[in-house]
Structures are given as C-alpha cells and as structure tokens.
Fold:
Amino acid sequence: ETSVIAFANQKGGVGKTTTTVNLSACLAEKDKRVLLIDLDPQANATSGLGIEKTPGKSIYNVLLGEGSLREHIHPTNIDGLDIIPAEVNLAGAEIDVARSDNYLNRFKIALADILSAQDYDFITVDCPPSLGILTMNALTAAKSLIIPMQCEYYALEGLTVMTGLVQKLRDNGANPDLIIEGIVMTMYDIRTNLAQQVVQEVSAHFGNKLYETLIPRSVRLSEAPSFGLPITHYDNNSTGAAAYRQLTKEVLQKLALT
Amino acid sequence: ETSVIAFANQKGGVGKTTTTVNLSACLAEKDKRVLLIDLDPQANATSGLGIEKTPGKSIYNVLLGEGSLREHIHPTNIDGLDIIPAEVNLAGAEIDVARSDNYLNRFKIALADILSAQDYDFITVDCPPSLGILTMNALTAAKSLIIPMQCEYYALEGLTVMTGLVQKLRDNGANPDLIIEGIVMTMYDIRTNLAQQVVQEVSAHFGNKLYETLIPRSVRLSEAPSFGLPITHYDNNSTGAAAYRQLTKEVLQKLALT
Ligand SMILES: Nc1ncnc2c1ncn2[C@@H]1O[C@H](COP(=O)(O)OP(=O)(O)OP(=O)(O)O)[C@@H](O)[C@H]1O
Ligand SMILES: Nc1ncnc2c1ncn2[C@@H]1O[C@H](COP(=O)(O)OP(=O)(O)OP(=O)(O)O)[C@@H](O)[C@H]1O
Ligand SMILES: [Mg+2]
Ligand SMILES: [Mg+2]
Structure:
C-alpha cells in the first residue's frame, strides 16, 4: 500500500520544501521506493534535488486531462528517489484548473494509475505557500499530511487555518480519510524564548501530533540546495542530517502504528 | 501625489509582512500619513499591528464591486498609520475575482477614490506568497514595488521570476509605469558565507536597485508581532528598529530622486 503524504502549510518559508526533500532522501536511504512530486510553481524541490527545470514541461497539462503523470517521472542522483519536477508554468494551472469541472480531483485522478501499479512505497508532495487549487488538489489526493512549522508567532497563527481545512475536507467528503500525520517544528533555535514558547503552545494544543524531533536551525541545510543535494549527501555528519534521519525514524514508527 | 508601493515576492517567508509593517510605522514616525492595505488572507500584517480579524469582514466584496475601500479603513495604535485589514475569507477572492470580468484591475478601480482624495502620502500593500489574483491586482494598482528578499539560495532563484513579471506587466500595458523601487535583503546573518554570497549575487545583477541597508536577523523582530506592535514600539533601541529606520531614510531619499 503506497503512502501518499502532502507537505503543506499556507504560511510561507516554514520549511515545506526542505522537509519534503530531506525526508524523501532519508526514506530512500532506508530502502523505501520514493516518488517526490513538486506541486509548487517555484519548483524549489526540483532544483533542491539538482534537476533542471525545463520551460513549459510540467504536469500542468496532466491536471487538465492530457497525458499522464508517469511520463513526467525522472530519476534523481539519490538511489531509490524519483521526482516529478515542477516549472513556473504550473502557476497557470491555478486559473485554468479552477475554471474546469471537478477541479478539486484532477490530481487525484492523475495519480490513480501510479497508485495501482504500486511502484512506490511513498509518494511525497511539496505544496506552494497558499490554499489555492494546487494545494487543495494535493490535500484531496493525499492520504495524510505533514505540516512543517517554523517556531515563530506568524506561523502559529496559521496552524489553526490548516487544521480547520483538514477537518472541512473530511466533513464535506472531498477526502474523508485525510489525517494529519504530524506537525514538525523547523528552524528551532534553543537559545530563543520565542521558539520554546511556540513549541510549548503547539504541544499543548496538538499533543501527540507534534513530532518529538525538532529540526534545528542550521546553515548547512540552507546551503545544500545550492548544490542540488539533500543534506544527507551534502553534509552527512551535520546536525541537519541527523535531525532528518531521526524524523524519518519517527515518521516510520508512527506509520507502522496506524 | 500618493506613493502606492506593493511589497511582493512569491517566495514564502522572506520578510514581506515584517518589512511592510515596520517600514509603514517608520514612515508614520517621520510624519508621513500612511495607509497599509493587507492583501494577504493570512492577515499577518493585520495581527502584526494588533488589529482584531473580524470573520467575514475583508475587502473581498469590494474586489467584486460591492461597497468601497474607504469603509474598511481602521486606525492603528500608531499615530499616522491606518490599516485596511485582511481576513481568511479574502482567499475566496482568488477564485471569484478570477471568474469575473476585468479581474486584474479590481483593486486599482477600488483604490481610485482614496487616491483622488489624497488623504495619504503612502499606501503600502502587503501581498501573499504567490503570483495569484491578489498579488497581480496589487502589482497592477501599485506605482512601484519593493521586493523583500532572504539571503538564501531558494529566494535567489525566485528573484528573476519577480523581475520578469514586472517587465511583462509593463510591456503588456497592465501597468506601464510600474517600477521596482528596490530590493531589500532581510534576515541577514553576517556570520554565514551563504548570506554574503547571496548579497553579492543580487548586487551584481541588480546593482542600484539593491538597498544598502541590510536588515539583520534579530529575534526582537519576530517577537514584536506577538504583541501587535511594530519594532519601533516594541523595542525602540533594537538593531531591528535601527535597520528599518535606516531603510526608511534610504527609501525616502531614493523617492525624492525619481
Ligand atoms: N532547519 C533549517 N535551518 C536553516 N535554514 C533552513 C532550515 N530549513 C529551511 N531553511 C531555509 O529556510 C528557507 C525556507 O525554507 P523552505 O524554502 O524549505 O520553506 P518553504 O515552506 O518550502 O517555503 P515556501 O513557502 O516558499 O514554499 C530556505 O531558504 C531554506 O533553505
Ligand atoms: N530580520 C528578521 N529577523 C528575524 N526574524 C525575522 C526577520 N524578518 C522576519 N522575521 C520572521 O521571519 C518570519 C517570516 O517573515 P514574514 O512573515 O514577514 O515573511 P513573509 O514574506 O511576509 O511571509 P509570507 O510569505 O508567509 O507572507 C516571521 O515569523 C517573522 O517574524
Ligand atoms: Mg517550498
Ligand atoms: Mg506575509
């Protein structure tokens, strides 16, 4: 059974791409077969894995019913990790898909044949910082959601919007089985009171949904994408690599339990 | 003549809201009459200035032609600074405005009576992290654009998308006079090579558009919003307050020159 996990949070810059890329690489390291789908027109996950963005070549047409997702699968430098890249023209899908029928299920329909082939253990989906058509399509298709979250005040404000949306998608039948897999705190700086307060606040409201692993702020994590590499390949001994390996262990443990 | 400045960058978390709020407060401190318009459904600028978000009360209807922007003007705790707040229902405008006629000029039309009354010296507009309908409306209505930019690799990648878009809006006649007022580097950490490299890269490509003022990473800046205050009122003697005052001086100097 393939796990389909969306990485979403409408708050910008909270570590969605960094978490999708590095968790996917760590899952592949544990011999899971992983497909990362970049659903953000910024295409940061695409360049973060060293894949060239080809102008005009994205799954835009697939979301409008032409062609298949399978044609867009590329290998990466990481064994066991494939990618479906994004490109800036994907932004056009926000408007064109919005005007089409059944506009929330386009991605889910496109994903069906890859899911039935069971080629992958995990499909991870990086989302843009908005609750527009692309993110809504990801949340309708996914089985679960991981919410990366900065240890900041503005990020805290946005968390209830996200959890409220998940409840709405469950209740209105768009995705009755969607669950929040977990909330992961990123860019944690132990020296600041703010970070500790935010973690306490999230833990008080969301208890067991909060992963124990806190991803520390580490400049190595923000350097790695400029080399097109996940942290495990850029700096194997860094605190960032250790944290994402720890998170991966925790994600796998929790999945085994559900 | 009222200056209308949009603060936009589709990359998330680069300091758009922090720059809009603090620059607006510093302009008011210099006895400019300022109106901040929060065009982001996350409504971070609204809460960053201590304004309650009223469910269902945003300029959503105004963008669809009902009522006027003037009705939504609220005072803030800061002398000389008014706000038009946002609310999560503004996200619905992305779809509804997209389906209406003349969908790019809705905000520009709504702004016309405030501009003709010349009540303000500055109108500042905080944008969401996307190039959707709300940001496009802001860029069509604005006279100039300030691009906040993190000293990070992913933010560097997105900069050319932003500058390319400005050129397109000028060329296709949507906003022939739109100029880039400037690019401001935020969360600058002098200790990291990455930050220095990114600043050098931006300076090499965009030369005189890059403000000399670099906003340092400072936890006081990220604490201030939780008290609903700009940095000048939260911690008047912080490096963040000094940096935004310096930036304000630079912005005013450059405006006087154009
Ligand atoms: N733990 C970390 N330590 C230091 N820097 C980090 C960390 N995680 C992410 N970053 C950096 O912070 C910035 C924001 O992270 P990222 O781009 O992954 O967030 P995002 O939520 O995907 O952003 P967007 O909303 O634009 O999609 C990036 O430049 C990234 O390199
Ligand atoms: N110079 C700074 N030093 C430290 N923290 C900062 C600084 N500027 C902004 N921040 C914090 O970084 C986070 C991102 O900033 P902000 O929310 O202003 O960015 P944004 O571009 O408006 O994000 P979005 O794309 O979600 O609208 C916020 O939590 C903010 O408090
Ligand atoms: Mg991202
Ligand atoms: Mg913002």
Notes: Residues A 11-13, 129, 152, 154; B 12-18, 40, 44, 129, 186-187, 215, 217-218, 221-222, 225 surround adenosine-5'-triphosphate (ligand 2) (CB under 6 Å). The first strand of chain B starts at residue 3 and ends at 7. Chain B touches chain A at residues 10-14, 17, 41-42, 44, 47-48, 88, 91, 94-95, 98-99, 128-132, 150, 152-154, 157-158, 161, 189, 192, 194, 219, 222-223, 225-226 (CB under 8 Å). Chain B has a mean pLDDT of 95.
